[in-house]
């Protein structure tokens, strides 16, 4: 009996010893139904031998060490989601246990039929500002743009641009994928707001940043829309048909159908009222783009998931645009010795362009461990234009007229631009947590062919107004520019600690340009050798980098250094000129972010980039497309090196709803490629302004902005205060003398969103902008332009079926030169009748620009030039528009 007891004890003890010897490592990721990681969730592992509790990190990743049994249960919970229980039965001896990605379903709570939702308007994360759509009150049949207008820190301007935290949104994605190529207006005006769960404003560092977490370089600001994950089947769409006076019309439609793993969308648009590709009939934009535009457009978007790992998505877009543009430009060119060239130029341009863009993506994703994406793209564009212009030029010295010029130019231009591209991305996550390798290849090859016929008559006058020279110039120019770009990068990450990794990186970049320029006398079809050239050049860089990256729950930083040898080589085959320039850039890398809570964040980033000169700046022949402004390249130019520092601070107060977004930036450039504008005196006192190029230092830029949102009276009134300032120290050469143009631009905006109830919406705003320019030449005074813009828009639900709306803009400009001066008052208004079930149908009578004063004016500061421009826009017209909105979603 004693022997039997001893044997049993030995067996039990050996089993215990074996259990204590073997330790298992368990890891996995937790996601919501769109595939985005859920941070801060509780993961509880329980078994007969273990009870371990951990939290997921900001990527949704969790890991549990020293687990004694491969048989266990995971219990996962997080506020706002349904709890999940997962049983796991593993094999003994398999020490590494990888749990497939787990998904949590969103959950709402009902109490006595009242929906209880959080009041937190936004959540601040490291590189993302996240807005929950359910926390914003929207009217029936609202679209994405209606939701965006309510989000703190986001501004939609009259030109259709979206500004988030002071930066323009470059594209909008839906669930991380492009929707009709990522076109901002198409997404805003066609995706129903009730399909949206979240709006995410992201500092996007590309695919490398997404897979590796490496925030290298300067980010782009994008928006990602996350739809409700439980809506797996349905359709949405809209159709517009309108007729107006003076032959105005608009016919457009968009339809999108999705069913679990397949989604297809199509759109079409025909209009001559300057509407965009999206074709929304509800916008009260002030005439759209410059000129009068006829648009025909078509596109489709498709996404399909073939199995657990393989999917594809892409789009095709076609557009035909015909435009008639009339513009006036008042230009002042400043030179030393109190010499001033003043130009007044009027032009009329008629253009007709076609554009085809096809892009596709084939994606293989094996549980985020192995990822491959292959993205071919093809585009083709063609544009023909006819330009008729008249130029009056006066040369002044000490404010006295020396001579003048009258020039009439007729120009016809034809342009073809085919482009093909291929992008391949591959990423592999090793079993060791944090170890990762990322590779990317980009290839683009395109040809830009331009043919121009220029007929110019030039009459030169002396100071007394007597004709001194009459000249006729007729030339035929053909430019063919072939461009090949190849880049490849490899990034390897090796973990040092749980949150710290070492990254080794290599980037190879090669750009090759071949420019073939041929100039002929139009009458004799005879080649002009002095204006013709065949020029080829290439720019090659090899960048090697080493960086230490840390990503904790609150702190994240990167410290590194990169070494970049550069080689710029070129050859003018016609003139037997060769260049070979070798450079070396040693650039530090530094970034830091601090996110103490979901209500505050601070960020700092330093980035550097090298930019080669363009072929126009390099080719050693003269371009006389405009006889008064010939351009001659410089084959000895160096590459520019830009250094940029960015600071940002974001804050949100949960109790008051106040938000504050701020940023500061500074940029310095070495070996900046600048224009050297030279007065060239010809016989008979003829003067032209020739542009040459050179490298100089001294240029820098400073900027800052802020956006504050203050909700009042229970969010029935929201006050938005926005401001920005930029200081540009522009350096250039004028008659070989270095001059500095100091340009200060500051703008302040106050706007309110007033929504006292469900029947009235009112949005008044006021904006003041100051543009001040001064030059280092003492003989010239400061040039100052100030602008006041008073705006108001709103809508009033007169009855359950009738809506009255309007938008008013009044501009006050002070400082524009010549006939460019204008202070337009623009009023748009409409009356709408809604009908059909759910108010899906609407009939709208609209009046645009009732005072017929719509025009566009702007100022451009370039080198030693100040240019004020005025362009025509679509004026007063009336339209009756029928709109139908349909959508249906199923779980």
TrEMBL record:
The keyword Chloroplast does not apply. Residues 1-19 form the signal peptide. Pfam families: OMP_b-brl_3. It comes from the Bacteria. Keywords: Signal. Residues 428-754 form the Outer membrane protein beta-barrel domain. The keyword Signal applies. This is Outer membrane protein beta-barrel domain-containing protein. It comes from Arcticibacter svalbardensis MN12-7.
